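Example record

One chain of 438 residues, shown exactly as stored in the release files.
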Amino acid sequence: MSPTESATLEIAPAAMPIVQREPLEAPVTEARRLWIEPLLSTLMMQAMCIGIMWLGYVLHPVKVNYRSDNSRAGVIADLPAYYGDYARHQAEYGKTPMIGLELGGKLGWLRPLVRWDSFWLLSVAEQGYVVDSKLKMQQNIAYFPLYPALVRLGMLCGLPSPVAAVAISLSAMLLTGVLLFRLCASIDSVSAARWTLWLWLCFPTSMFGVAAYADSSLTLLTILALANVLQNQPLRAGLWAGLASGLRPPGLTVGMMLLQNLFTRRWKAALLGGMLSFAGIGLYFAFLGWQYGDPLLYLKIIRTWREQGTSLDPRNWGKAIVVGTLNAIKLIIQQKPEYMFKSGAITDPLLILWCLWFLPSVRKLGWGVLLGTLVAVILPLSTGSTWSIGRYTWSMLPVFIVAGQRLSTTRWGWLTFIPFIAGWVWLAFLFGGGWEVT
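Predicted structure tokens for this chain:
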């Protein structure tokens, strides 16, 4: 059995009229529908999102003078040459050295999809890690290695790094959509699966799934791990969780879902799976120790350019959400340029509030799944800010599963899609134009 097949629970066909002459037609048709419907739905939303990004690039491109922060910014056609120059002249690039970059040359058609953090990830794939612990500035060591490694693999197959990065993101999002739909149909109903899928596809930060970012890859590994946790297949779940922990920091929380498998007959496999769930970050830190003599170098570099400290005080989490929401209202009322530039200040606190509303219902999937999802919320909030938490929320698939189950049984659940689609269009439009979307 392949890993993808093992990630999907056994699905009972929906009730169909009995046809004695062709008894297998209904189950086969149903099984095909469980693949085709989410496949087409995800493809349609990806195509629409790319179109909106291009409209943003054509109609509303960024007009902020980034060169005040990075005098070497601008349109570039030779990424390796740029990264090589950065490696030689880091101090001249300012605190955010990749700010203001845009693709040029033959790859200019990908410009709306390759923005911001994309260049950091591509720099690892093209150049490897470039580290100077003495410089208090953002460096590519802050980006975990799995996604750049996949991009590098695409490069070895002859693809330019931006093309490989976008292809990986689109493929991962497509697979996630199909597996999410099938998992929800197996544990509830096709109706609930349809609601869950569309909530996930229309979520405002789902636009990161088509960009050269690692977010869609994280959602794919999350759904694979979650499905195996629910099937009580902890060893397989641990393998997927281990890959997730080498992708992005939130991947660490995926392995926590395995805790509920420790209290089953397969507790030994669960224990081993739990150990495997830290394999990605463990290998990365071991590499840093071997290459640079300091396995904790990642944490030190992060702390040099991030102003927020880390706090585990729940009062700070509440404060971050309240302050973020108030700042969002202020930006909307004032209609200043920051209203367009700092889009995350508006969307992020609202999205985390939506997540928290459905969080208690995640208990239906098991207390381990609830714990892992709760920690996934706490982790970004521990910085004392809601910055980028909208992106983290998109990978919290258990929340979407229970939200889809609940909204599928209510009369006014469809109203949720109105603000979702509005936010999705707005963020995709800005991102394509080069505005900062966190």
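Notes: Strands lie at 74-76, 101-103.
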